[in-house]
Amino acid sequence: VYIYSLKDYKVLGKFGKRGEGPQEFLDKNNSGVRIHLHGGFIHVDSVKKMSLWNFDGSFVKEMRATIGQNIMPLTKDKYVGESSHEEKVGDTVKSWRTINFFDTKMNKKEVVFKQAHFHQETGEINLFKASRAFRSYNGKVYVTGRKGFQVDAFDANGKKVFAINRDYKFLPLTKADQKKVMKWFKDDPRFDDYRVKSIVALL
Question: HSE of 185 in the Cβ direction (CA atoms, 13 Å)?
Answer without folding.
Answer: 17
